[in-house]
Design goal:
Blueprint (H helix, E strand, L loop, with lengths): L1 H25 L4 E8 L3 H11 L8 E8 L2 H9 L5 E4 L1 H9 L4 E8 L4 E5 L13 E4 L5 H12 L9 E4 L3 H9 L5 E5 L3 H6 L3 E5 L10 E6 H6 L1 H20 L1 H12 L4 H14 L8 H10 L1 H4 L13 H8 L5
Parallel strand pairs: 1-2, 1-3, 6-7, 6-8
Antiparallel strand pairs: 3-10, 4-10, 5-8, 5-9
Helix pairs in contact: 2-9, 2-10, 9-14, 10-11
Length: 328
Amino acid sequence: MKTVQRNAWVSFILLLTLLSGFEYTGAQTLEKIRLGNSGTGINVYLLDLGRRLGLFRKQGLDLEPIYINSGSLLNQALLAGTFDMAMSQGSEAMLAKLRGADIRINAVIANHFNHVYLAGPSIASIKQLKGKKVAVSRFGSGSHFQTNLALKDGGLDPEKDVTILQIGNSSARMAAILSGVVDGTIMAGDFVPKARKEGLNILADLSATKIEYPFLSLHIMGSYIDRNLRTIKAVIRGMSDSIRALQSDPVSAKAAIRTALRTDDAETVDYALARSVQVLDRRPFPTQAGIQTVLDELTKETKGKSWKFEDFVDMRALRELEKEGFFK
């Protein structure tokens, strides 16, 4: 009888231990991360989808995405310590680095463009923008960088042949071109269906080029990276899982896109998803060619110094994840 009672007590204590273990795991504190992001397209869908599906919480993170309507303003906030990390176009992080800030690219989830160049109904080519007004979000932003590339490719000198105005994000620039305030602008490719319905002309689709470019990068201050490599790995894992979900779960992906674009237009949502699937990379490594594209354009900022790939990227988190077999 004593043996039976003793076994019962042992079983009861083991059960309590297991239950307390489950309770502790469930109540485990998540690490709060403030991530600033710029742009109204793919990065917004991705972050929203990851939060909807709990993919960042799965990595032990309470990720708070905060939208800033310009990449250059976002970098200023990152430098001021407002954010732990930032996600926008890599050219913005590289420009800050060239100007002395210790901002490093830690991952690139898209190494090709997703933007188009739009103009009003009366303009059918880039060359016809000569003498006209064109819009960017802010000087030094990714939209400014891509505008320069598109105009040069079309035979214009951005500094001499057009007047560049700071207008704001894609929605603000779309409103500016529709109202006639500007004649042309760079625009997220997701707005193509709306642009066509409004009678605007698509002068160039940068996604159709073979040019590599760090279109969406995760960039972080060097001092933060040195102290928080484990956290950065968790963020990258969450982003890679979100990319996988966007590419394989169209129902959830479309819900995130509808929320971000504030539209129920099926053509717009389908088009945005197709472009996102095409441009996103589950293995988010920056490329030598992409970094060089930016350096070739920012010749005035290099000040004669020979900059290298390693000056702008910090591969520690990616290399550890690769070694652990995460990307397989």
